[in-house]
Amino acid sequence: MADHLEASVTLRSDPASVSAARVFVAGVLGEWGLPADTEMADAVRLIVSELATNAVQHTFGQSPTFTVDLVLDRDEHLRVGVTDSHPRFPKRLPAAVQQDNGRGMVIIRWLTAECGGRLRVRPTREGGKTVIVQLPWAVPATEPVAGALAAPAEGEAPGR
């Protein structure tokens, strides 16, 4: 695989775009060799879903779009970034707060830590922010297909 791969999509700040962001990420991860049925693929899709939801719900109409960026460096690190144009950084809620929403960053932090990654938020030059999650890239080794022909062991006749 290449030393550096990038993919990006900009979507309207609309609830329907959360699903579009997930679909985009799933497709890119698949192209880059990460099977959809792995824990890492599930984690990345959920992280993007939560970040996209935050970009739609918590920018109060001040960010007409958000951008999802994926960067794979040397088959070692996957960086997922979601950028919006609202200047307010995500806030950590106290654990005791009982609300129906506001748990997105808690989920993202937990998934990031569980995958051995790290989370940071950076301001953009335009006055918005990018929430970045960096994860170790872990594509499972492919297993031989059952019934595939294997080279015969030394001294063994082919076909046995």
Topology:
Blueprint: E1 4-12, H1 15-31, H2 39-57, E2 65-73, E3 77-84, H3 104-114, E4 118-123, E5 129-136
Antiparallel strand pairs: 1-2, 2-3, 3-5, 4-5
Helix pairs in contact: 1-2, 2-3
Pfam families: HATPase_c_2 (PF13581)
Protein name: ATP-binding protein
Keywords: ATP-binding, Kinase, Nucleotide-binding, Serine/threonine-protein kinase, Transferase
Entry keywords:
160 residues; alpha+beta; Heat Shock Protein 90; 5 strands; globular; serine/threonine-protein kinase; protein serine/threonine kinase activity
Q: Could you give a short description of this structure?
A:
The chain has helices at residues 15-31, 39-57, 104-114, and strands at 4-12, 65-73, 77-84, 118-123, 129-136. By secondary structure, it is α+β, with helices and mostly antiparallel strands. The protein has a 5-stranded antiparallel beta sheet.
Notes on the protein architecture:
A hairpin with a 5-residue loop joins strand 4 (118-123) and strand 5 (129-136). It contains 3 helices and 5 strands. The protein has a single domain, classed as 2-Layer Sandwich (Heat Shock Protein 90), CATH 3.30.565. It has helices at 15-31, 39-57, 104-114; strands at 4-12, 65-73, 77-84, 118-123, 129-136. It has a 5-stranded antiparallel beta sheet with strand order 1-2-3-5-4. Helix 2 runs antiparallel to helix 3. By secondary structure, the protein is of the alpha+beta class. This is ATP-binding protein. Residues 12-133 form the Histidine kinase/HSP90-like ATPase domain. Pfam families: HATPase_c_2. InterPro entries: Anti-sigma-factor_SerPK, HATPase_C_sf, HATPase_dom.
